Amino acid sequence: MLVRTAQLQVVGTSPLIARLLEDALHARLPEFPALALVLDWPVGFAFQAVTPDTAGKSFVLTQNGCPEYLDDLWNLGLLGLAHRSRTLEELAELLRRAEMQERVRLTPAVRSPLTPAERDLLRLVALGLANKEIARELRIANQTVQNGLTRVFQKLGVEGRTGAMLYYWGNSIRTQPQLGFLTAGRFRLAARRPPKEGRRWLAQPSMMARLRSNSTVQHGG
């Protein structure tokens, strides 16, 4: 669902949430910035919504706090990225900064303990691939995959593949669908669903190639 205003585009899967957010921001931003505000719901939606051509004009709001997931989003070349609920005033200020072509990242200051190669393993496990499939995708030996995953699980403190999947998707696999809502002047991106769609979007070969090629992009402030 794409809600168009004079310049701002609110991109999301829920028309209700997009409309509520558009109306709320209208009072705080008389002149909308020329960018796309992408609501990453269900988790992984932003990987479909943001293309190489639109990344430099896209600001993503996500509920997923996994540092590797956030880095994957940021490395798409986003203009802005914010995590969890923001007051409407704060969100409006972030959009103003983004409009001035200032890359804005407001996410937890947590660094991933994983190497780039281990991040690839985590991402593919999160997509539900078996070891043989991961080995084929990365063109490495099965034993290399097994050894690498053992290190990944130990570093993250998770129990096996299921724990790694829950970790990457922000535990949203276990949560029930909710409605996003506006309350007390605060916009909350509270809607979550099992990220079946997110896994499908992230698994696209073109997306995997983008993430690998952008893996050296520096983090924003």
How would you describe the overall organization of this protein?
This protein has 221 residues and is α/β, with parallel strands linked by helices. It has two domains: 2-110 and 175-203, Rossmann fold; 116-173, Orthogonal Bundle (Arc Repressor Mutant, subunit A), CATH 1.10.10.10. The chain is 43% helix and 14% strand. The chain has helices at residues 15-26, 45-49, 67-74, 88-99, 116-126, 131-138, 142-156, 160-168, 196-202, 205-213, and strands spanning 2-4, 9-11, 36-40, 58-62, 80-83, 86-87, 104-106, 181-183, 186-188. The strands form two sheets. It has a six-stranded mixed sheet with strand order 1-2-3-4-5-7, with helices on both faces. The chain has a three-stranded antiparallel sheet with strand order 6-9-8. Strand 2, helix 1 and strand 3 form a beta-alpha-beta unit. The model is unreliable at 1-5, 173-195 and 216-221 (pLDDT under 50).
Provide a concise account of the structure shown:
With 221 residues, the protein is of the alpha/beta class.
Write the SSE topology.
Blueprint: E1 2-4, E2 9-11, H1 15-26, E3 36-40, H2 45-49, E4 58-62, H3 67-74, E5 80-83, E6 86-87, H4 88-99, E7 104-106, H5 116-126, H6 131-138, H7 142-156, H8 160-168, E8 181-183, E9 186-188, H9 196-202, H10 205-213
Parallel strand pairs: 2-3, 3-4, 4-5, 5-7
Antiparallel strand pairs: 1-2, 6-9, 8-9
